[in-house]
């Protein structure tokens, strides 16, 4: 734990970003009975819409080659 110039505590670790949808039922679905059914994109990445898959690929490429 560190402090800034005024003595306030600075969190050394960034806040945790949830990586998994808390509504997921553990089998890969957020709402299986919905119309249309809503998949958990962390459990079933192949069901992500194409624009989300492309955005993730682009972000990964930028991270590898800054």
From TrEMBL:
This is Uncharacterized protein. Residues 1-28 are annotated as: Disordered. It comes from Amycolatopsis eburnea.
